[in-house]
Amino acid sequence: MAARVIGKSTAVASSSNLPDYERGRASFTWADARRSLSGVNIAHAAVDRHVDEGRGDVVALRFVSELAPPRELSFAALALESNRFANALEGLGVKPGDLVFALSGRLPELYIAMIGALKARCVVAPLFSAFGPDPVRQRLRAGNGRVLVTTAAAYRQKVAPVRDDLPDLEHVLLIGDDASSVDGPGVQALARLMARASTEYSIAPTGAEDPAFVHFTSGTTGMPKGAVHVHDAVVAHEATGRFALDLREGDVFWCTADPGWVTGTSYGLVSPLACGVTCIVDEAEFDAVRWYSILEQERVSVWYTAPTALRMLMKAGAEPLAGRELSSLRHIASVGEPLNPEVVAWGEEALGKPIHDTWWQTETGAIMVANYASMPIRPGSMGRPVPGIEVGIVRRDASGERVLDSQGNPVLVAGPGEEGELAIRTPWPSMMRAYLNAPERYASCFAGGWYLSGDLARIDADSYVWFVGRGDDVIKSAGHLIGPFEVESALMEHPAVVEAAVIGVPDPVVGERVEAFVVLGPGFEPGEGLSRDLMAFARRRLGSAVAPRRIACEQALPHTQSGKIMRRVLRARAQGLPEGDLSTLGASR
Ligand code: ATP
Ligand code: MG
C-alpha cells in the first residue's frame, strides 16, 4: 500500500517549521512549549498575548460571506470586544466554571463570545447551528447550560420549543438587530449588554487544569459524548498548529470546519490565533465555485479541510478551477475521515499541492498524527506522531477484542505492520479530562498509561501510521479482520465511484461478509454491466477474500451532520433493523 511516495523538494523541507522530524521530536518538551505561551488561559495565549507583544494590528479573524463585504477583527479589536463579553457575563452573575453554550452561524459575535467566556473562565460548549431542538435540548441538559449565546431565529426554532425542559438555562443572549422580536425568560439582546460593558478586563489567574471547553463528538458510532477539555490544551493547539499545519507569521489560514465541532474551534479559532495568523471564516455553506474563489481571493496559504469536502470538489470537476490563481496555497491538510490515496494525488494534480492527512479525535483535543510539510507523503497513511506524542498499537485477538495482560494493562503488538488499536501515551495537554456525566465510560478509555482510541491502525517501520478502520466498523470474515478503509479506497480508484462505504453483514458461513455501497459520479448509470465491472475491479485489486460480495449503487450515503459516513446505519439497513432515532443524534441529512 505504501508503494507510492509523493516527494518534497529540499527547499520546502528546510523552510518548514519541522525541518528535521527526528531532531524536532527529540528536542521538544511540553514544558518548553507551555513556557513560550506565558500563561495558559486560552484567551490570553490566543489573543491578548499578541497585543501585549505588539501584534495587535494583525487581522485575527476575517469573515467572508456570500452577500455582505468581508468583516475583520484585529487581535486588538478581538481583545477589547472579548473583554466586553467577559464583563457582561460577570455583570450577569455568571461564575467561573459555568457552562456557556453557543448556537449560531459563523458570525463575529460567536467568536467574540467564545474568547470572552474563556477570559471569564467559563466553560464554552459550542453547538452545531444546524441542530434541531432535540439535539440542542439534550446537550444543554447534559451540560446544565446556564448561558446560551444564539440568534433570534435559532432561539425561536430550536430553543423556545424545549425551553420548559431547560431549568438551568438562566440567560439567553441574542446576536443580531432583531433580538427584540423574541420574548422569553432571561432573553436579552447581546448588543445592548455589550454596549454597557467596559472594554477593560483583567483575566484572573487561570489553572492549567481549569475546564475550558466541552466538545460533543460527532455521533458517528452512537450517542455523542461530551468531552471536557482544559486551558492547558492551548499548548497542544499552538504546537500542532506550528508543526502539523506549518502555520507561520503572515499566513492566511482557512479551516472549513464549523465551530460546532471540535475541529472548528480547536483549529478554526484557538490554534491559528495562538500561532498569531489570520484566520478566514466563511459564513456560508459548501459550494465548489465559492470555495475556490475564497482560496484565490483571500490568498489562503494554509488550508485545513475534510475528505468529504475534497471528494465533493473532485466531483465538481475541472471547470470551477479553470483559470484560478492559487499560487498562495502552500500547505493543504485534511482530517475527520480516512483520506483515500486518490484524493492525495488529486490535490497534487488539480491544486498543485498534495493533501496532508492528519488524525485526531474530539477526545484527543488536538492533532496527534500528521503528514508534515517537510516530509514525503505516503498516500493512505495518516502520517507520524507529532512531537510530544507517543503512539502505540494495542494487540487485538482474533475476535477483535483488546488484549490485556494479567494486571489489565494493554499488550502492544510485537512489531511494525501488525494491526491493532491505536493508543496514545498519557498525558498530553489537550487530552480530555472527563466525559460529561459518564465517569465509567471515561475510565474505560484508559489503561496502563495509554489512552485507547477505539480506532484500528498499524505503524510501519518508519513510524508512519496507517488507518485500518474504526473498531466498531472492522469486519470479521473467515478468520480475517478486514478494515473497511482499504476496500473503500480500492473502490474509489474506479472512475465511476466518488464515494464508498463498506460494512460487514452477518453470514452463517464466514461470520461476516463484505458488502459495499457506492455513489456514482456524474455521467455514470447503475446497471448490470457497471456492477459486473465494479465487482471484477474490486476482486483484481483486493483478492476474492477481501473484495465485496455485493456492491449496491446508492444516490447518497448516510452522513453525520459533520459529514462523516455512518456505517452503522448501513449495517442496520442491511439487516432490516431500525436505524435508530437519528434526529436525536443530530445525525440525519
Ligand atoms: P463518535 O465518537 O460520537 O462516534 P466520531 O468518532 O466521528 O463520533 P470525532 O471525534 O469527531 O467523532 O471523530 C474522530 C474519529 O474520526 C476518529 O476516531 C476516526 O475514526 C475518524 N478520523 C479522524 N481523522 C481521521 C483520519 N485522518 N483518517 C481516518 N479516520 C479519521
Ligand atoms: Mg469517536
Automatic annotation (TrEMBL):
UniProt signal peptide: none
Domain AMP-binding enzyme C-terminal: 486-564
Keyword Cell membrane among UniProt keywords: no
Keywords of this entry: ATP-binding, Ligase, Nucleotide-binding
All residue ranges annotated as the AMP-dependent synthetase/ligase domain in the record: 53-436
GO molecular function: acetate-CoA ligase activity; ATP binding
A single GO BP: acetyl-CoA biosynthetic process
InterPro entries referenced in this protein's UniProt entry, alphabetically: AMP-bd_C, AMP-bd_C_sf, AMP-binding_CS, AMP-dep_synth/lig_dom, ANL_N_sf
Listed EC numbers: 6.2.1.1
GO cellular component: cytosol
Pfam families: AMP-binding, AMP-binding_C
Record-given protein name: acetate--CoA ligase
